[in-house]
Amino acid sequence: MAPPSTTASVRTTPEGLVWEPSGRWVRGRKGDVTVVDSRHPLLVWEPAAPVPLYAFPLSEVREDLLRPARHPKPGAHTGSTVFYDLLVDGELLENAAWTFPAADLAGYVCFEWFGRPEAGLDHWYEEEEEIFVHPRDPHKRVDALPSSRHVRVEIDGTVVADTRRPVLLFETGLPTRYYIPREDVRLGLFTSADHTSECPYKGTAAAYWSWRGEAEVPPNLLWSYPDPLPAVAAIRGLLAFYNEVVDITVDGERLERPATVFSRLLGAGRPAGKRRAR
């Protein structure tokens, strides 16, 4: 099947799917087996989904590893999809792939990434760079800008950070995050947390901290990227708080706590940021 023209604009199907061609070379591996090797992927957004997924031409997928799903999950994706199990080196991954009913996407197959509770493919790459959690949205921008703004952070009236040399991280759809040098954070008021998370735009947040005081705040509210992706190298080793649960004052102006996709998770007291972008 010939791929859609790479000059095509964003399109919408009658089922409510939004898709566009991607010029990226995308590969997915399970162990040492390359399951997907595609130079003609499509980016697809399901209705109301916050992040895209990839759809691949069947000719660029190891079809010999796909089996009709033994226990398909009707309703898990838009339309009456056909599900496949994936068999790799004797390991069966149930409902690892599926197709959409949209005529525009005939001959394409998708693989589970974002929020998948079961085991999926181990590694995904765009060109030679490994990516995490979900495909990167070409309509989303992330900028890390050094600043001289005066940023103060408080928890229940206690100043926990004060700096005039933050790096401001602007990410489409999320509030500005204020990354603060370690020396300007009172880390003695926090305890190191056994927690990590991954972000397709920033990399792996391998260091987290929780508040040691009596204030009712969720755990893992402070994090750092020791080795961020090159595009946001300016945040390397700096620390950031969830604006949703702390009080941040910038140049004398107290910011309102934003309502975001994380607000419910943080308010519920569950570990914040697990497998999500911040």
How would you summarize what this structure contains?
The chain has one helix and 25 strands.
Q: Would you give an account of this structure?
A:
The protein has 278 residues and is mainly beta. The chain has 2 domains: 11-131, Metal Binding Protein, Guanine Nucleotide Exchange Factor, Chain A (Beta Complex), CATH 2.170.150.40; 142-267, Metal Binding Protein, Guanine Nucleotide Exchange Factor, Chain A (Beta Complex). The protein has one helix spanning 263-267, and strands at 11-12, 18-21, 26-30, 33-38, 42-45, 53-57, 66-68, 82-88, 91-99, 108-111, 123-126, 129-131, 142-146, 151-155, 158-163, 167-171, 177-179, 190-193, 197-199, 203-205, 207-211, 222-224, 239-241, 247-250, 253-254. The chain has an 8-stranded antiparallel β-sheet with strand order 1-2-5-6-10-9-8-7, with no helix packed on it. A 4-stranded antiparallel β-sheet has the order 4-3-11-12, with no helix packed on it. Strands 15-14-24-25 form a 4-stranded antiparallel β-sheet, with no helix packed on it.
- Helix share, percent: under 10%
Strand order of the largest sheet: 1-2-5-6-10-9-8-7
User: In the CATH scheme, what's the topology name of the largest domain?
Assistant: Metal Binding Protein, Guanine Nucleotide Exchange Factor, Chain A
| Head-to-tail CA distance between termini | 39 Å
With helices defined by DSSP (H or I, 4 residues minimum), what is the helix count?
A: 1
CATH class of the largest domain: Mainly Beta
User: What structural class is derived from the secondary structure elements?
Assistant: mainly beta
| Order of secondary-structure elements | EEEEEEEEEEEEEEEEEEEEEEEEEH
Q: Could you name the ranges where pLDDT drops below 50 across 5 or more consecutive residues?
A: 1-7, 268-277
CATH superfamily of the largest domain: Domain of unknown function (DUF427)
Biggest pleated sheet? 8 strands, antiparallel
Number of strands: 25
Average pLDDT confidence is 89
CATH-derived architecture of the largest domain: Beta Complex
